[in-house]
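User: Structure please.
Assistant: Input sequence and predicted structure:
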Amino acid sequence: MTYVSAGREYTRDSRYLTTRITADGRDGYPVEPGRYRLVVSRACPWASRAVIVRRLLGLEKALPMAIAGPTHDERSWTFDLDPGGRDPVLGIERLRDAYLARDPGYDRGITVPAVVDVPTGAVVTNDVSRITLDMSLEWSAHWRDGAPLLYPPALRQEIDAVNDMVYRDVNNGVYRAGFAGSQEKYAEAYQRLFARLDLLSERLERSRYLVGDTLTEADVRLFTTLVRFDAVYHGHFKCNRRKLSETPVLWAYARDLFQTPGFGDTVDFDHIKRHYYVVHTDINPTGIVPLGPDLSGWLAPHGREELGGRPFGDGTPPGPPPPGEEVPAGHAP
């Protein structure tokens, strides 16, 4: 598979299926517990957003989850973690089949996260930004008791603004550096990435969380890039001004989130490393997966409590991951 085009800037294909699952079913897909299946890979930062938000809001029973394997070929993500290599509910080996069930001529990215309508076997949406927002906006009738407000009305404008700049310069910025087709395009992405990380570090010196004094959607979106930084982006994507663990404020912030129920207990470092180093053969042709970095630092004290803040606001932490959704032993600190 080819991710780098010589001489060109990396451009993400964002032509998503934008159908929404809503409380009133205005797009033809009403919120119904158990009707849909959230397909993710723990390797993917975009899918990891949905995994975390689902956990924090307690939507595990209402929105069951399928976990694809960490690697894929040019055709699609596969369900090689399941017995017989098939998702036990959808009955398919490849996520591609669910996209083709929606549109036999589908010619865009076979991406995760994707929400599949179980009765038809067809993907409803893979609109990564909308999926998590709609968990907050449309699925509230099925939240757990004590679920936090991740997208509170009074802070939505600020959350949206932070999300936009984090997406542009950080979430997608690491890819723009890693998949750059020229020295010039790489340097541009590299400078924008670290300039933004410096500004975020300044912001987080004064505040425990990105917006307000509780966890929000903005923290989820930044976390999924930060947690992959030293394991893959620093070396594999050449984002190597310094490691996250050498950036005091962001490292403490990331550890704070990692140690918060619903965040670190969803992270599978083995899947993350295998995905990037095995799938991206044009920038790692040997397919060798690094043994490091040492993960024990993720559990070190972070001291961020001194800044105040209430992680879950008036709510409570989620309980342990449900059976079958635990990160395997040895895949995390």
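The chain has a mean pLDDT of 97.
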